[in-house]
Amino acid sequence: MMRLPPAGTRGFTPPKAAQVIFGKMAGLSHRIQRAMGDRMKIQGQRLLMLTTVGAKTGKERQVGLARFSDPNHPGSWLVVGSNAGSPRHPGWCHNIVAHPDQVWITIAKKTSQVRPELLTPEEREKAWSMVVSLAPGYGRYETTTDRQIPIFRLTPTG
Q: Which tens digits make up the pLDDT trace of 12-41?
């Protein structure tokens, strides 16, 4: 059973107005990502569309995330639960933990069911170094919050 590290006590929290705007723009962002296929990037990294089932709502949820190749597990991807350095884990992390058998990724219009794994502390340290070397903007998130930022490995099941 996966268990997220505890939430933090400090970190970046956007103003309520910004949260409302981001929520309204999520659908537009998803449509743009689907239209652009595999060309959209965050911090220089190509994206994947993560589909989960809501931990509380049971509804399907989607989010675009930067993806990192897992050098130790070819064919698997790493995704980072940074939440921009917030003291709280992103909702998709809770969704994965609640419903690990209901997780899919879409890359370049190809959807695959995946098996998620929360990296062990040792794996996470190595992965974090790689992530920050490829996308240095992630480095400041770890100094913004006091929570341990989780990293998940997503391995296609088919």
A: 987 878 777 777 666 656 666 666 667 666
85's torsion region: left (phi>0), alpha (psi -120 to 50) or beta? left
Contact between 84 and 66 (Cβ < 8 Å): no
Q: What is the pLDDT of residues 41-66, one digit of tens each?
A: 678 899 999 999 999 999 999 999 99
For the whole model, what pTM was predicted? 0.90
- N-to-C CA span, the chain: 22
In sequence order, what DSSP letters do the residues of the chain get, joined into one string? ---PPPP-S------HHHHHHHHHHHHHHHHHHHHHTT--EETTEEEEEEEEE-TTT--EEEEEEE-EE-TTSTT-EEEE--GGG-SS--HHHHHHHH-TTS-EEEETTEEEEEEEEEPPHHHHHHHHHHHHHH-THHHHHHHH-SSPPPEEEEEE--
Residue 37: count of CB within 10 angstroms of its CB: 14
**Residue that the structure tokens 């743009």 belong to:** 32
